[in-house]
From TrEMBL, chain A:
One of its GO terms (biological process) is cytochrome complex assembly. Keywords: Cytochrome c-type biogenesis, Membrane, Transmembrane, Transmembrane helix. This is Cytochrome C biogenesis protein. The keyword Transmembrane applies.
Automatic annotation (TrEMBL), chain B:
One of its GO terms (biological process) is cytochrome complex assembly. Residues 539-567 are annotated as: Disordered. It is found in: Membrane. GO terms for cellular component: membrane. It comes from Streptomyces yokosukanensis. The chain crosses the membrane at residues 54-72, 108-130, 200-219, 479-497. Coiled coil: none annotated. The keyword Electron transport does not apply. Keywords: Cytochrome c-type biogenesis, Membrane, Transmembrane, Transmembrane helix. It is a multi-pass membrane protein. This is Cytochrome C biogenesis protein. Residues 52-533 form the ResB-like domain.
Amino acid sequence: MTLAAATNEHLASISNTLIYSSMAVYTLAFFAYIAEWLFGSRSKVARTAAALTSEGAAKASGPAVTVKQAGGTAVLERPKVVVRSAAGARDVPDGPGAHGGDAQGDLYGRIAVSLTVLAFLVELAGVATRAASVERAPWGNMYEFNITFSTVAVGVYLGLLALKKNVRWLGLFLITTVLLDLGLAVTVLYTASDQLVPALHSYWLYIHVSTAIFCGAVFYVGAVATILYLFKDSYENKLQTGGKPGAFATSVLERLPASASLDKFAYRVNAAVFPLWTFTIIAGAIWAGDAWGRYWNWDPKETWSFITWVAYACYLHARATAGWKGRKAAYLAMIAFGCWLFNYYGVNIFVSGKHSYAGV
Amino acid sequence: MSKTETDNGPDQEDLGAAGSQLSTAPTEELSVAPGLGVIGWARWFWRQLTSMRVALLLLLLLSLGAIPGSLIPQTGADLNKVDDFRKAHKTLAPIYDKLGLFHVYSSVWFSAIYILLFVSLIGCIVPRTWQFVGQLRGRPPGAPRRLTRLPAYTTWRTTAEPEQVREAALALLKKRRFRAHAAGDAIAAEKGYLRELGNLAFHIALIVLLVAFASGQLYKSDGTKLVVEGDGFSNALLQYDDFKAGSLFQNDDLVPFSFDLKDFKGTYEVTGPNRGTPRTFEAKIGYSEGAYGKEKSTTIKVNQPLHIGDSKVYLVSHGYAPVITVRDGKGKIVYKDAVPLLPLDGNVTSNGVVKVLDGYRNAQGKKEQLGFQAFFVPTFDPKSGTMLSQFPALVNPLLAVNAYHGDLGGVNAGMAQSVYQLDKTRMKAFKDGKGQLLKKLLQPGDTLTLPNGAGSLTFEKDIKEWAGFEIVQEPGSGWALGGALTAIFGLAGSLFIQRRRVWVRAVRGADGVTVVEMAGLGRSESAKVPEELGDLAGILYDQAPGAPEPDDDSTDSPVVPAEGAEK
């Protein structure tokens, strides 16, 4: 064995250690999120107070003009904009978040986010060393795809947090599935680090696979929001019709953003990434044109990418169609994400096609 | 079909003309039972087909219809798999055949779905385009009477004259690239037409894409050719080993060119668990375009086909071609050639046939034909205990041969016959001294001597490689690419650009002070509209500064927040 190869083996084992370490930190983050939810559930008073203050804040922005007295002359401030919400929309304020206004819950929430950042960095280092060990992009097999995928999904979440978007409520749901994804990666899908077969030697690997991973991660975030929307929506419906949801459902759901906000968030996330998904398929087609002789081969992976694309297109159209808005559109979004999942796991494992490289 | 934005915006009746035509999306109408007569039904059918709901259903059907093709073997992808499936499922296969499930993407029902979808699309796009052109030629609608009802609203009193404010507002909006004009006591402005343009471009691009794809299928040609190092190929129908073409393809559509294979090189993983996995394949060729083009040299790799005009030459397979020399009893060379052998496994264990058709005379001087079955391994390892190759490169090559003589069959009669198979019906095997089938393992340079002075076969030291090329011609792929790229940009425009209107009204109030009102309306509820309005109002406010409030603000206060005002 050459010296270079030995270094690579060494790097690969460092990568494995880093991935396991990140799983440990994600687990800690997971417990911190749980603690946030638990502490958040204990104080109803704090929560109600928070809801009231946020309502008060909304009211304060209502009046259009305030008059400030300065030196005896009345000078107007810059005019303020009155926003009128759409007719027919439910007037439900967003929940306060998992901590429910509880100080200790909030503290644990912050700890959880910090731990998530740490785990993300460790995992990122794991992916990077894996890439260094194989001297190529770390997307040659399902193991590498999985670890990159979860890194990107967490990255998207942290990116939204950094942009000051109200998405901390996503944390617990996201980290749970990230742990599942990593667990699957290190047990079932693990593949020793290795180089690529000639068919994958192309710069299109970087373009096509990286956008595919990114789209998957963003679709995933959208899907989590859609599921929560469905729960929150039926919860709100029940409240509206005078029903009484269960204590657990109330405790969890009342802290989430309003169903309209969740729906809008899911829509924005899915719509934002849909053109990129289109690009992924087209980049794949261009690559296929160079590698396989035809740009569209109806290979199972291609077919399922197309099905996923059509399903998301359905969702985007349904949002604009009377009688399909709301829950039905949300179901379509879930179907679309299901197609994406099947395209990744199902097609790789159960169907053989031209995308079958390097085992799984 | 195709408006891709929430429509839970402001209630439109409330706004009258101002809120209308912010998009050209079709209005949802209830399906009224058609009037009597053929025309009534046709019109009803057309209206249904071009409605959003039906388009949505067709889209759903399209994705559902694509599923079986990914799970059932397809003739277009792998004929052998289809045959295996037919053998394994005797009852199911005929049903699948009737439903066209072995060629889903060219089946009648799948075509019906997408043709209906595209008819629906065209039926939707054409009127929308006219409507959009009309909107571009017209002007943004004037301000609604009560601006307070709009989703974003602001107002202030100013010392400036109403005319001044309107002029300033018009200039400001024009500078911000709104289409603006003065309408009565207000300025009406609109921006974000690219959204509609993007939407239309996206859907038109889809049609272009489909047409390009379909024409590509009809005019395409696709053939394979195996070329041994040193040999060549010129692009004519007769030269192909295997050729498929679309139904409108004509033979003279083939792009004229020729090439010679100079050298083929494959490298493989030498160590580790993936030992033997291919790493690189390269074919060095010299090629010339046209009938008498100048020769140029290039390298074809797995991901790097050679483009000549509309044609692309791909490297798709490779194998070995040992050079075999056959001599007759007198030592005269009757055959000397590189014999391409077909690989059987990943380590290129290969087999094939050597056929000596004429020129050979046996020991008695009688004309006869010879046939040899050859089994070749590039890397033989006696320790492995099998005759199978242990590594794909030439490490320890070994050739196993047995020999036959007689009549090779249909060759002389002109019947098509595989060059890789031996028809032994009129052949007799050579026997060794014990009466067993003559068999010998040869290393490079070794010779198999046939019994009774029948001649010999030499496995020359020079082992050549061959490369399999696929030559594909698919016209229209440039159009498909153009359509696809347009689709992405159109899509991005239609999803990310917000179409919105802004109105600025400036009138003299009852007390003689100018009152400015500004309002914004977007296609969908978005935080951007009020933000932009606030921004515009801020700039305009600097040019038309505020006037003190009247003492009793009950008389003239347009500032009552609309009911349900909330951020």
